[in-house]
Write a structure and sequence with these properties.
The chain has 403 residues and is of the alpha+beta class. The protein folds into 2 domains: 28-90; 108-402, no CATH class. It has helices spanning 23-55, 63-73, 77-90, 118-126, 226-229, 297-300, 334-343; strands spanning 108-110, 150-155, 158-166, 177-182, 187-192, 216-221, 232-235, 238-241, 248-253, 258-262, 273-278, 284-285, 288-289, 311-319, 324-332, 346-354, 361-365, 374-377, 397-402. The strands form 4 sheets. It has a 7-stranded mixed beta sheet with strand order 1-2-3-4-15-14-16, with helices on one face. The protein has a 5-stranded antiparallel beta sheet with strand order 5-19-6-17-18, with no helix packed on it. A 5-stranded antiparallel beta sheet has the order 8-7-11-9-10. Strand 2 (150-155) and strand 3 (158-166) form a beta hairpin. The N and C termini lie far apart (123 Å).
Amino acid sequence: MATMQTAPSARRALPPRRPRPSRWQRMWRKRWVRGVLAACAVVLVWLTWSVGSYLTAPGGDSVAARLAEWARDHGFAPVVVTLEKWQYDLHPPKVGGAPPPISAPSVGQSVAPPTKSQTQKASAQALTIAMRPPMTPPVQPALPHEGQWTTLVQVKGQPAVQAAYVRPDASHTSYLTGVVWMSHKLLKFNLHPGFSQPGGTWTVPDWIPPSQRRGLVATWNGAFKLADAHGGFYLDGKTAGTLTTGGASEVFYKDGSMTIGSWNQEVHMTSNVVGVRQNLTLLIDNGKIAPNIDSNPEINWGLTLGGRYYIFRSGVGITAQGDLVYASGDALSAGTLADILKRAGAVRAMELDINPAWVSFMSYQAGNNPNNPTPQLLLHDYQRPADRYYTTTSRDFVTVYAR
């Protein structure tokens, strides 16, 4: 029986043999692979060094805060914002419920530095500072003690620093906002840099050394990073960033006084100005809340979780009498923060830093050791410890002393 043979045309066509790479091609490929691996190694070494410099920098910033700062400083700010928004959407502030019992830190006596003349001492002792009339809380009916002022720090026997607590709005009733009033007659105010914000070299230290703690009565946090603040930082006769016309500004003077205003409108550079810290535009001006408080919140009130988000916020203002008011707490929008500062008597006010990693207010009690007063938190839910400014800190801050 004849064997059937496949016709040549029906045979399966074999793929053409790939030519063997030449010696030159093989050498080029090896060099290319080595180059890619070397580039990856360089990037890895740089990344390790760059991130490591943030993780090992001085100060008490958390690992999460340090990583977020590195990302923002290296072009990944949109990624950080997106992650923070996802976090907010997954864990929004609680609605309803009751706050913790309303109570203030214990009252203490701040001892003024022993450099005052007898005339100055007599003048200070002649001052009579009244307790503030109760604030009208945003939520009615008010809880027991809500909006009522208590003394945090006495200076020369007078209630120089007073605090009150209120719920921020009718929805977020399980949170308390701490509000502080500070007498401009009994206190003086100073601006400090942080070692990375604004960075650079300054004669004013980026912490409160032991030699500068006598007479200390309060501290509060700074504002946004200059890249996000749309303004500048001035101290020691030099400027970081740019002092921007219309920018909301904390302004510090040689005599220890300070004010809040819009730059080149209500406040200006003069020979008496020793410090300026700008951040966005005013929340309150001429006793009125900014008309754009609820419009374009991520442009007007911060890219990171803009003004419509209910998060940890802080702000500072000045009253018609020249006294300072500060407010901070969780579950605040830009609008509710402005409302509380206005209720506290502010005729001009500005937003400071946001997010719990950066916000804090401390009062200080001299006790038996006036050269090393003990710090106390205004709110227990701050992330930072009370002695935050007794060590090097990454961001700028304000110190308050007895006159």
